[in-house]
Amino acid sequence: MSPSKLDSTASFGHEEASVSRSRSENGSADSLSLFHSEKAVEELLQQTPVAGMDEHLIEFSEALRTVAKALRRAAEGKASAQAEAAEWKRRYELERTRNIQMERKVSGNNNCEMLQRWWIRSSLDNAMGMLRIMLPCLFFWEVGKEQNKRMLEARMAERLSAETKGCIDCGRVKNSDNQLMQQNESTEHSEKICMNNGIWSHEVLCDRESDSNSNADLNNMMNKASFKLSWWCNGENGDQHKHDIVSFEKGDITTAERSSKQISLKWESDPQTVLILTKPNSVSVRILCIQMVRWLKEKKKLNVYVEPRVRTELLAESSNFNYVQTWKDDSEITHLHIKVDLVITLGGDGTVLWAASMFKGPVPPIVPFSLGSLGFMTPFHSEHFKECLDSVLRGPISITLRHRLLCRVVRDAAKNEYETEEPFLVLNEVTIDRGISSYLTNLECYCDNSFVTCVQGDGLILSTTSGSTAYSLAAGGSMVHPQVPGILFTPICPHSLSFRPLILPEHVTVRIVVPFNSRSPAWASFDGKDRKLLAAGDALLCSMAPWPVPTACQVDSTNDFLRSIHDGLHWNLRKTQSFDGPRET
Q1: What phi and psi values does residue 366 have, to the nearest 5 degrees?
Q2: How far is CA 368 from CA 447, 548, 551, in A?
Q3: What is the DSSP letter of 325?
Q4: What are 453-494's pLDDT values in tens digits?
Q5: Is the dihedral angle over the CA atoms 197, 202, 207, 210 positive or is it negative?
Q6: Residues with Cβ < 8 Å from 84, sequence gap 6 or more?
Q7: Do 286 and 379 form a contact (C-beta atoms < 8 A)?
Q8: What is the pLDDT of residue 180?
Q9: In 3D, which of 462, 461, 466 has the Cα closest to residue 485?
Q10: Residues 540/407, Cβ–Cβ less than 8 Å
């Protein structure tokens, strides 16, 4: 090799070495492997040219590759460290917020204890002070009572004088007084029902938020059917009776069985309004809907609500269906639970899911008729709809309270976990998957404040027990009775042989977080719709919703559940072993 070529090669080597040294100064100057690589390059450059220069050039190129690898590792390590530091900072902020809230609670408890001690020390002074306060109050109460008595006597005198004069308005006064007495009696009656049965009757149908249209809603509530929920068993002497969960007997702690009774719905007043929801694009459903609407109006004298699409179809069939009512916009849907006493679905499980999604709060009892494919939640047959509805309207009926999940998305930019988007209510499941990405889903899962696991696979399913026979079952989850309160934690194609499904209690809050080192975002879907993108740092919070979906049973919840898995899935269907053959002697 000529000296000119050697000089050019040496100069090229010096340039590469200077570039590598400048990169190392900007990247990770403390790397020991990078220091050895640079030292090796300098030693090679300081050697004099010899006959075997080709071998030295090969070693020189390998040294340069080593330097490049070291720089690349340093850059990757720096990016990973930055992502990990951001994640720990976010966790620190969340933990700091929780600690501040706990300190406020503890300080509040300490203040209560201090006030309690002070109250005990000065009980006599407090008693005297209370007497000083109560005596004027009692005095003014007696004065007000005397004034009310005088006003009542004056009203009675005016009424008597009006009667003597033949006044017609006397009847109106009586009617108003009777209405007030009826309202007070109904209020006291509803309070007695709620306190005696333990399960709030109107909690299923009434929310506690104020309305702008309070007068219209009050009129609808006065016309609304009332009912009560109670535990039901087969006879008074049946073996299904209520027990205490934990009992203490002779110093031993024993756990007794929970109540195994079914839930029964008994109407306190006759239902007056029915909502019918149908599966679209079905001729058989349309024919059945026409027959059912006509029968409910003519025979049962009920008010019938349908969807706007169905009302248009009924009016196209005949103008005699103009008595059928509907709503104009989505704002009226939020008040349907105040107007409707009963919901009837004509379709499959998808129609039941659609009916549940219409009610963002309390849900009226649902009577589902089977006109779909499998029918895990539709026990009633359409051929005998008159007998079924007559039995339901007469009552009592056995119902299944199907729990729902309340899901909230918390973005990374949120200051705390209370700054969420509009919540979703799901009856079957919420699914977190990788969407169109080809990378594995990376999800960090927490149960309350405890770390559960990191999901690496196609995704994760959080399901209710009613949805245990849906997507969760296809992903390897267990089938669970719908009356069992719990949250199913089922992975989708996990990249691990030991990742098995879990069933968590109903009182926990599950938090799914997309970490900052995830290669791709995740997607969440709620009952198969309403897809939401979850970017790095975003979280999904899932807990049990306070508003279940009450569905009517043909027999009872256990019988209907076992029948559905036998008929729909052919569960454990096998030919019986032949009785003839070898036997044990």
Answers
A1: -115, 130
A2: 34, 16, 7
A3: B
A4: 999 999 999 999 999 999 999 999 999 999 998 999 999 999
A5: negative
A6: 516, 517
A7: no
A8: 40
A9: 466
A10: yes
Q: Can you tell me the distance from the alpha carbon of 201 to that of 228, in angstroms, rounded to the nearest whole number? A: 5
From residue 105, give the alpha-carbon distance in Å to each of 98, 109, 114.
Answer: 11, 6, 14
Question: Please, are residues 24 and 66 in contact by the beta-carbon 8 Å criterion?
Answer: no
CA 575 to chain centre: 41
DSSP element (H, E) containing 322: none
Pure H helices in 299-443: 308-317, 336-339, 349-358, 385-394
E strands, 495-559, are 502-505, 510-513, 522-526, 529-534, 539-544, 549-552
Range in 125-129, 180-184, 333-337, 486-490 with the lowest mean pLDDT: 180-184
| Tokens of residue 422, six digits | 């509009």
In the 8-state DSSP scheme, what is residue 257? P
Please report, for residues 177, 187, 204, 507, the alpha-carbon distance to residue 184 in angstroms, rounded to integers and kept in the order given.
Answer: 11, 5, 22, 37
End-to-end Cα, the chain, rounded Å: 97
**Would you name the residues annotated as active-site residues?**
349
State the burial class of residue 37 (Cβ atoms within 10 Å of its Cβ: 0-12, 13-18, 19+).
buried
Angle, helices 3-26 vs 32-46, to 10°: value is 160
Backbone angles phi, psi at 282, to 5 degrees: -135, 120
- The Cα–Cα gap between 193 and 228 comes to 7
Kind and range of the H or E element at 347?
Answer: strand 342-347
At 40 the three-state DSSP class reads: helix
Is the sign of the CA dihedral 319, 322, 326, 327 positive or negative? positive
Model pLDDT, residue 288 = 93
DSSP H/E element including 249: strand 246-249
Q: Write down the pTM of the prediction.
A: 0.61
Percentage of the residues of the chain whose pLDDT score is greater than 70:
66
How far apart are alpha carbons 310 and 308 in whole angstroms?
5
Nearest-angstrom CA–CA distance, 538 and 419: 12
